[in-house]
Amino acid sequence: MVWVQKNYAARSVDLPADACWIRIESVSCKVPGPCPETPLYSIQRGHSTIVISALSGRVESEDLALGEEQAFHFLKAALR
């Protein structure tokens, strides 16, 4: 298994080979809601997706497919 290393919240995190990621540089925000800090990383594994702030490591959104509830356990553990 090949892993890709990315930096989130000043921590190096190894992504498994089956993870696909995209860097998001800017977002449109709804007023009066909070606007997420950018850049963001959207990471997909299987049918599940998580979006996190590259600066703070805060999870902005998470969509877990049935049976893939632990898809991002490695990432959350590394960012604690």
* Total individual domains: 1
> Which strand order spans the largest sheet, edge to edge or round the barrel?
3-4-5-6
Distance between the termini: 24 Å
> What low-confidence regions span 5 or more consecutive residues with pLDDT below 50?
none
Percent of residues in beta strands = 35-45%
Radius of gyration: 13 Å
Mean pLDDT: 84
Tell me how many strands there are. Answer: 6
Oligomer classification: single chain
Main beta sheet: 4 strands, antiparallel
Rough shape? globular
Decide which structural class fits the backbone: mainly beta
Helix content: under 10%
Order of helices and strands: EEEEEEH
Work out the helix count. Answer: 1
Give a written overview of the molecule.
The protein has 80 residues and is mostly beta strands. It has one domain (3-79). The chain has one helix spanning 73-79, and strands at residues 3-8, 11-16, 19-24, 40-45, 48-53, 59-63. The strands form two sheets. A four-stranded antiparallel sheet has the order 3-4-5-6, with no helix packed on it. The protein has a two-stranded antiparallel sheet with strand order 1-2. The model has no long low-confidence stretch (mean pLDDT 84).
Offer a quick outline of the entry.
The chain is mainly beta.
Write the layout of secondary structure elements.
Elements: E1 3-8, E2 11-16, E3 19-24, E4 40-45, E5 48-53, E6 59-63, H1 73-79
Antiparallel strand pairs: 1-2, 3-4, 4-5, 5-6
